[in-house]
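Q: Please design a sequence for this.
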């Protein structure tokens, strides 16, 4: 029977919250010179600082007990060793095998998956190298542009990673098309050279409506542009569904497979990473995997209190379940990580946005938080006002590199200073007395001080973690992503939910398929209460008829 391990700890954790709430963080820092050392963890070229949280030693110890009673280590070993922990789909969860650099076998149903992984990786390497050096040519010769057509995990990972690693990008130009909105493809067509473009159709299932529509439209466009029917050489496929890739007409020699034990949102390490490999080269792709492997080893071996993903997970639970904070901001002070929050939205919200435990019962507590964010410093001039002075408390993750990948005046120092300033301001805040003193020092009258001071108060005591890493390179990015993956895993284990299925996306997909003929005017919506078994509600019917009217009644 599934169990939400948190439930037995709620009373203790709430008592801890009530005690911690009496001492603002600024006082905790003032009273404890060792607070940073106490609440930070180092890992190779990275520091994870979690000292700016509403936490003391006792509360932290109580949180660690939650991980212990959920037996996170045992659950992790079940994942790493290929047990079918994705029970609702009857699948193992082995994305970690894709970056297993130990040389040891990884068994799934008694069979070592490593030879299959290595065979695909070798094929990807040969193909990526040939595309990069021109040995693989298309109609117009050497490939100048690649377009990854995919959505969700078949887009967000490669799109985020290629952008993050642009300083290492020495292959063809990369484009990503995901949305079924024709605008996405149309804008991409404007940027590419048809005769020298390679389309990579990335879809685990090879049935996803958006991806299949985009791939077919791209093929038709290419045929028109090149004036020939045979454009097969311009397409490669990344999928677990070889029957469907063949049916689409993509030859096996340009199809790179993976397996049902790689979840879509965990697939950037698999063949889905082909566009990344073509962009930065196989060697650097290897470094990306090395970084993730390093995080895997840390997660498997570090004790709970010194384990970055475990601590990240516990902090998330602390705020979501004990303090009632619903959202979590991810704020990279690293412009190339602009898509990292979107990537984490799928990773966290598709994994842990669940209302039932593995056995179908309610977990009885809240589960996954709402994740959102934008790069700093841009966000500072947009939504930080609410983070600092709004009525909601939003725990933040700051990410910043010690060294920039370029040397432009003092930009990087300004960036770092801003990042540190934000977490400091959130933690410290500004009291009414401080606001008054500031206004007085600025020569304001007593009346003005009375009027303005309340607006200048910052409540402070607002929690944040900071990742400070040496430099955003392939290896570091691999580490960061894998740390977040394991955070999500730990939370799922504690809540007793399945972090690896996504049934919640199915209903919308089914209804969209049902609506397509109605939108096209080839079927009529029927109302509930009529003889027909499936009806459309009055709102949907009303919108459909307004839509048709706006399209000239068609
Ligand atoms: O709709 C959700 C989802 O199934 C994601 O989990 C997945 O990453 C995405 O769609 C794309 O799926 P596929 O790779 O099969 O096209």
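A: Design:
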């Amino acid at each position: 029977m599934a169990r939400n391990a948190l439930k037995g700890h709620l009373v203790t954790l709430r008592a801890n919250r009530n005690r911690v709430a009496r001492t603002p963080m600024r006082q905790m820092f003032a009273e404890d010179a060792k607070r940073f050392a106490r609440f930070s963890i180092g890992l190779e070229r990275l520091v994870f600082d979690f000292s700016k949280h509403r936490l003391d030693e006792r509360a932290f110890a109580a949180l660690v007990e939650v991980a212990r009673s959920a037996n996170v280590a045992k659950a992790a070993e079940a994942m790493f060793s290929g047990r079918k922990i994705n029970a609702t789909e009857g699948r193992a969860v082995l994305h970690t095998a894709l970056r297993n650099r130990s040389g040891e076998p990884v068994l799934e149903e008694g069979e070592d998956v490593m030879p299959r992984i290595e065979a695909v990786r070798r094929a990807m390497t040969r193909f990526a190298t040939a595309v990069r050096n021109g040995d693989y040519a298309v109609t117009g010769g050497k490939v100048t542009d690649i377009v990854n057509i995919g959505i969700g995990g078949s887009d967000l990972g490669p799109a985020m990673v290629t952008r993050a690693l642009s300083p290492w990008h020495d292959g063809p130009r990369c484009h990503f098309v995901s949305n079924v909105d024709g605008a996405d493809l149309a804008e991409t067509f404007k940027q590419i050279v048809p005769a020298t473009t390679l389309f990579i159709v990335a879809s685990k299932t090879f049935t996803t409506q958006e991806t299949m529509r985009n791939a077919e439209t791209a093929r038709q466009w290419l045929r028109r542009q090149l004036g020939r029917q045979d454009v097969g050489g311009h397409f490669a496929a990344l999928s677990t569904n070889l029957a469907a890739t063949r049916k689409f007409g993509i030859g096996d020699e340009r199809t790179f497979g993976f397996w049902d034990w790689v979840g879509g949102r965990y697939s950037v390490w698999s063949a889905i990473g082909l566009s990344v490999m073509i962009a930065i080269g196989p060697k650097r792709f290897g470094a990306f995997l090395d970084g993730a492997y390093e995080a895997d080893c840390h997660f498997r071996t570090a004790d709970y209190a010194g384990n970055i993903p475990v601590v990240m997970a516990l902090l998330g639970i602390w705020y979501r379940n004990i303090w009632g904070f619903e959202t979590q901001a991810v704020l990279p002070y690293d412009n190339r990580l602009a898509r990292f929050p979107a990537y984490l939205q799928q990773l966290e919200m598709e994994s842990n946005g669940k209302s039932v435990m593995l056995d179908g019962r309610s977990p009885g507590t809240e589960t996954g938080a709402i994740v959102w964010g934008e790069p700093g410093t841009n966000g500072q001039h947009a939504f930080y006002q609410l983070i600092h002075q709004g009525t909601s408390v939003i725990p933040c993750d700051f990410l910043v590199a010690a060294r920039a990948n370029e040397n432009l005046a003092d930009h990087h120092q300004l960036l770092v200073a801003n990042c540190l300033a934000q977490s400091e301001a959130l933690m410290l805040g500004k009291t009414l007395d401080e606001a008054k003193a500031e206004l007085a020092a600025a020569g304001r009258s007593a009346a003005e001080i009375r009027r303005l001071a309340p607006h200048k108060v910052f409540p402070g005591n607002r929690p944040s973690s900071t990742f400070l890493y040496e430099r955003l390179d392939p290896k570091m990015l691999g580490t960061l992503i894998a740390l977040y993956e394991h955070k999500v895993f730990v939370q799922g284990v504690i809540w007793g939910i399945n972090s690896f299925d996504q049934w919640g996306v199915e209903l919308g997909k089914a209804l969209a398929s049902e609506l397509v003929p109605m939108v096209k005017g080839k079927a009529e919506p029927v109302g509930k209460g009529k003889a027909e078994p499936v009806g459309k509600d009055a709102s949907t019917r009303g919108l459909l008829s307004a839509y048709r009217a706006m399209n000239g009644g068609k």
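Q: Thanks. Anything notable?
A: The chain has a mean pLDDT of 96. The first helix runs from residue 10 to 20.
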